[in-house]
């Protein structure tokens, strides 16, 4: 099954993608990781992406979708995939349709802005090993210190209040219209994210079966 995961930053897409990926045995494809891998592998589109990035330009939708098509042609994606972080705009979704990438279901993780703001403000990350924490829901054993490697935990720029507000605004303006777009195609399922990851995951899996 080919799935798109939609949701505001902080709605818990990454966590849900991980669990779905285990449950369904299909890979999660995140745009950032996919781009980095293609650049590293030096594929045709990877080189184009690198040229754009080196020039300080945005990587165009055509290049991203080209890389995506290469990625989903790989053996591990033959039973399906979960797209996390793409498409972000209606034109990107249209381009995906035009390039013949079949999408079966679109899961919208709906979480209120206020909840997202409080979730993200508590987030702490370890820049050294990549471990993530939350001061309330997933506190490290020692405050401000990574359980895994013992390094200092920091607040990412993305999680600072002013950045969160602007990321949410961008989401509502450019990405939220995708809810309508996929709803019209009969592919949209909305799941109301709760504070419990396990509970949200049950809802997501039920939505996939339904
Ligand atoms: Zn660490």
Q: Can you walk me through this structure?
A:
Helix 1 packs across helix 9 and helix 2 crosses helix 4 (61-72). This protein has a domain at 2-26 and 79-111 and 169-209: 3-Layer(aba) Sandwich (Rossmann fold). By secondary structure, the chain is of the alpha/beta class. It is built from nine helices and eight strands. The radius of gyration is 18 Å and the shape is globular. Helices cover 48% and strands 16% of the residues. It binds zinc ion (ZN).
Named CATH topology of the domain at 2-26 and 79-111 and 169-209: Rossmann fold
Number of DSSP strands? Answer: 8
CATH architecture of the domain at 2-26 and 79-111 and 169-209: 3-Layer(aba) Sandwich
CATH superfamily of the domain at 2-26 and 79-111 and 169-209: P-loop containing nucleotide triphosphate hydrolases
Describe the secondary structure blueprint for this structure.
Blueprint: E1 2-7, H1 13-24, E2 28-30, H2 31-41, H3 44-54, H4 61-72, E3 81-84, H5 90-98, E4 105-110, H6 113-121, E5 123-126, E6 132-134, E7 153-154, H7 161-175, H8 177-184, E8 188-192, H9 197-209
Parallel strand pairs: 1-3, 1-4, 2-3, 4-8
Antiparallel strand pairs: 5-6, 5-7
Helix pairs in contact: 1-9, 2-3, 2-4, 3-4, 6-7
Bound molecules: zinc ion (ZN).
Zinc ion (ZN) is lined by residues 126, 128-129, 131, 146, 148-149, 151.
């Amino acid at each position: 099954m080919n799935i798109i995961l939609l949701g505001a930053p902080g709605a818990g897409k990454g966590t849900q993608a991980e669990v779905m990926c285990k449950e369904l045995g299909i890979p999660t494809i995140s745009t950032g990781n996919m781009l980095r891998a293609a650049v590293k592998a030096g594929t045709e589109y990877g080189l184009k992406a690198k040229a754009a990035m080196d020039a300080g330009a945005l990587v165009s939708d055509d290049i991203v979708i080209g890389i995506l098509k290469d990625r989903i042609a790989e053996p591990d994606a033959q039973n399906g995939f979960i797209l996390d972080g793409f498409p972000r705009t209606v034109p990107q979704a249209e381009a995906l349709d035009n390039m013949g990438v079949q999408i079966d279901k679109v899961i919208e993780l709906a979480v209120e802005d206020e909840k997202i703001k409080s979730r993200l403000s508590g987030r702490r990350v370890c820049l050294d090993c990549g471990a993530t924490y939350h001061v309330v829901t997933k506190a490290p054993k020692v405050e401000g210190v990574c359980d895994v490697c013992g390094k200092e935990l920091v607040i990412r720029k993305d999680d600072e209040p002013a950045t969160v507000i602007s990321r949410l605004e961008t989401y509502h303006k450019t990405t939220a219209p995708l809810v309508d777009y996929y709803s019209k195609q009969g592919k949209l399922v909305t799941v109301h994210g709760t504070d419990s990851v396990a509970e949200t995951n049950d809802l997501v899996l039920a939505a996939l079966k339904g």
